Structure formats: structure tokens, C-alpha cells
Predict the 3D structure of the following.
Amino acid sequence: MKLASLKTGSTRDGRLIVVSRDLARAVDAAPVAATMRELLEDWDARAPRLQALYGALNAGTAAGAFAFDPRQALAPLPRSHQFVDASAFLNHGDIMERAYKLTVKKTPGIPILVPRQGDDFRGPHDDYEFPAEADQCDFEGEFAVITDDVPMGVSAAEAARHIKLVTLLNDVSMRGHLTRELQMGFGLVQAKPATIFAPVAVTPDELGPAWQDGRVHLDMKVTRNGEWFGHPNGREMDWGFGEMIAHMAYNRKLGAGFVLGSGTVSNKGYREVGSACLAERRAVETLDHGAAQTDFLKFGETLRFEVAGADGTSVFGAIDVRFVPFKAGA
Amino acid sequence: MKLASLKTGSTRDGRLIVVSRDLARAVDAAPVAATMRELLEDWDARAPRLQALYGALNAGTAAGAFAFDPRQALAPLPRSHQFVDASAFLNHGDIMERAYKLTVKKTPGIPILVPRQGDDFRGPHDDYEFPAEADQCDFEGEFAVITDDVPMGVSAAEAARHIKLVTLLNDVSMRGHLTRELQMGFGLVQAKPATIFAPVAVTPDELGPAWQDGRVHLDMKVTRNGEWFGHPNGREMDWGFGEMIAHMAYNRKLGAGFVLGSGTVSNKGYREVGSACLAERRAVETLDHGAAQTDFLKFGETLRFEVAGADGTSVFGAIDVRFVPFKAGA
């Protein structure tokens, strides 16, 4: 099934709705769960009833159905008590390290996992404010999963069964702060402000055979100001989501609503499929020409991320956001 | 006023109570706010009514008052959408760098801020499970503040006004994973599992003159298995909490319930006042004797953290936790 959270005046967690497979229609989930958080905290008991509602919605028999407007959507889970962003496509890191002669002290078999903030997830169409172009505003197109409660000490196979939803995000990145924060080595703060999510999260079964080994085997289409930027595929992730969740859960439990991002989607065939972030394209240009040719984002630019399923329809809806100057007190 | 959250069978956010100044009695906050989260999201409107209840409780005139049992307490805010732990006592880092000949690439004026998980805050008396003594289990006694909504772009002075509560935490640390994760440079995961909080959080006015420049000018008493370990003072923090919140809010807003830890309390007079973590004492031993003499935590050990106010009474109540082996499925 497909789920989204609509803006409301009164709650920070939005109003949970079930969205039809073609993203055209929706129906209120409130009789079963008022918010996505409420659903995730009691998934096994409540999801089957929403699944039935989803069936009726697709069949055109759901009472109270209305047109789905992604402009009214918050992030599917509007805030989370734990958001961790991986860097699970080693190809991306390899390009960056070669271009800039960096060495990340990786340990074989251990994924890069970056703890992040969960209090300010953004909807798919809201203007994104940032303070200064000198901060080198970049994007990272990523897949992400959302879990229910994950016990401490789970195996990768057990962890995979706690993945309840899959979605799409733009991990907005301020490269002007990244090197300083990476060198300090304690984590990313000013380099990684609020994250933007697709309007819809889907259960893994919606992906059909494109959900394999805890990876999304679909292209991530990235468009900058209406022009193609890249369409790398999620299948080349070096760790499955289940493996990374198990690493996280080694000595902690993960609360329902845990969000894990894949890291910027990146493929070995990057010359053909392009990239899902500016930093990677700039690194490729640096390797090829000795210097980057592509600029970081300027105010007024727009970015679109979308993923089509096997039948060509949009799986998660699109992220389509304009980047604008921050005005204090606005 | 002083606030706590009691365990309940049904909610993950607990049940908010007002606790008397001497920590002996409590009264339900539910007529004003059912949970700490609800209060923080609407602080200005609701806090004055709880302040009045607190006055009545201290005067012995509050209806429905009952004995306060810290063993029934969750963390004052049982979970948060954003927890960041600073390392704001540079003295601690200096000792570590000298002992182990490390170099952290700090930028003058910029605090070390470590994004962390907010989904698994622990109460002050619950046994703490961890998988293996080989993980080198350590503790860090810290002060922490909790904010209401902080807008993007605030100044340090404005940020300080968003500090609504102060508390105490034990930032449990697994040193066996720390070097690997620090070298990788993307943040701390297995090195920093769940965090333990004192039973009570207090409004800054409760600290009287001990709350100055966004710092807590009180000793943090640390006891290991009933024996004195250290009592460093919070006044030597190199950044005030307001300054660090402003750094965080440079390009993001911070949601109500943002928790910011101070980092392990550490003083230049460490030979007299001791330390608030094993790693620092071990580093001092390494500097003095060429090798550490103090062991990391073994299963069965207990740790107590407490802070006395000017009149000698406990400000936040005590963290008093036993460390035990993790048993899967227990």
C-alpha cells in the first residue's frame, strides 16, 4: 500500500492518508491510525486494516475518497526520533576520494552511518530556504526505509522484516561546511540541514521484484531546473538496508519510525547514468578536466527527484522543490 | 519548577508530573499537559499553570499529591526528535589528545557537536544492558538542556531564551568502537548507544545563581560502585548552551524537545576534582604512569551521578544504574 501525511493546522505529525497506487486518490486513515507514528508503533495490528482500505481505494469503492494533492503533503513520516543516513554506495566515496585525494579510514564490512536530526523533515513541494550560496548547497537523491520497533541484537534477516515502508529523499547538503565537519570527525551539523521527502511511502511489496536483498532496483531520476541530471539505480548499494539496520541494532533498540537513508545513489556506470548529487559530478569533472565545471545551487533553482516502477508510473510521487534565500522572521 | 515523566503501560512518552523542590512529592500535570512533549510544544501557554501547581505542591496545598518514586521515572523527556551531544569542555579533549597523541582538527570558535539518537532515552534506575565487556563500556557525566521551538538563524542570546529545562545525563560510551568511528569521521553509532537521564528536569530559575552564561555552576558528583570517582564543575564549559544552540540553528530550525548535552564535565583542576568519565582518568594515568590503571566497566558495576544545589539538596535526583549483560529476547 501507499501512505502519506497531509498538512493540518493543529498537529506536527500531520494526518495519515492511504493513497491509491496511481497517486490520484486518497482516503483518510483516521479510523485506523490518525498519524504515521501511531501506525508504525502498532504496525502489525493496524496495517492489515489499512491494506484493506487500500484495496477498496484502488477498486474505486472506498467511501470518502478524495483527490490526492501532493502539494498538501508533509514528509510521509513528518518527524522521527531517529534518522540515520548511510553512505552505502561505495562507488560514490571512491569517486570523491580519487578526485580530492582523500582517505576515509573505512573498516571492511562496516557501513558508513551518519546520525542525523529527525525534527525537521520537509514536504515534497515546499520552498527550501538556506542562508547563503557560499555554503555550497548540494543535493543527494536517496532511497530510504522506515521501520517499526527493532529489538537490540537482531540479525540482518530479522532486521529486514522490520522494514515497513520505502520512500525517497533529498539529503540536502551544504558542502561549504562538510570538509570542516568531516575533519573534526564527530558528525555533521551545518553540513546537513533539513531533509526533503517524497510525498508517499510504500510497503516493500509495492516494489514487486524491484525490492531485492534489501535494495531498490529502480532508477532514481534527478532533474535540475527541468534538465536531466542523472538516473542511477539503487541496486548497486554495497549493503542491504537489513544489514545496516542490524549494525545499528548491535547494542541498542531502534524505536518505531526509525528512518534509514541509503546515501546518494551512485553507479559504476556513472558516465552513462550520471549522478544523484553535484559533488559527485564535480568530482568526475575534476578527474577528467582537472577542475569542476558544474556549479553548486543558486537561489531560485529547482530540483526534482522521481522513481518510476516497472510499469512506468511514479512509485513515491516526486520531490520538486525550489531553493530560496532564508529571510529571518519570515 | 521541577518536572518528571512516570512510566505507564500504554504510552511511550510517559505521564508528565510536577515534582516538589525536595523531590519528595509529586502531582499529575495532566490537566495542563499529558506529556513532556505536549508541554514543550506549547510551553509559553502552559508552563505558567504548571508553575502555579508547583507552588501549591511546595506549599503542601496541591490536591492529589503523592510520594515521588524516582524508580518509576522515565527520562524527563522520554524521547526526542533531536538529541545532539556537545563536547564543550575543551579540557577533556586536551587531556585525551595529549595522552594518546591525537589531533582533532578543531576550528577555533566552533564547538564539537555530535548528532545522536533520541528514540531510546533511559530512566535513572533501570538496569543497562550491553553485549560485551570487550566493547569497553564507559560513562560521561553531563549537564543537558531541553528547548522549545527554536527558529532558524537565532542569535546566542535569543537561543538561550529557548532553554526551558536543565537536566543531567550519563552519555554511555563504548570506547572499543570509538576510535574506528572517529577515524571514519561521519559520526558515532556503536560507540554511543542509549543515554541515561536523571529523573527530574528543572527550569533554569531553580538553579538560582548557579545558572550563569548558559552554564551550570555546580559540581557533578560521580560515584562508581559506591566510591567517589569525581566531582568536576559545569562552570568551565568553553561554550554556553545558548552559543551552541545558535551554531546548530544557523541553517535549520530546532523542534520543541531538542536536547543538547554538554559533553563530559571536565575541569583544569582534574587532579583535585577527578573526572566524569573513565576515558579521561585513564588518559591522566597514561600521562602520569605511561599506562592506564583504571578498568572499563564490568558487568554488575553501578554508577551514580548527582548534583547538589547551594543548599545541599539534590537538584535533579540521582542517576543510579547497574550495568548488566545483554540477553537477546529477554
Summary: Residues 2-71 of chain A form one domain. The longest helix of chain A spans residues 43-59. The mean pLDDT of chain A is 97.
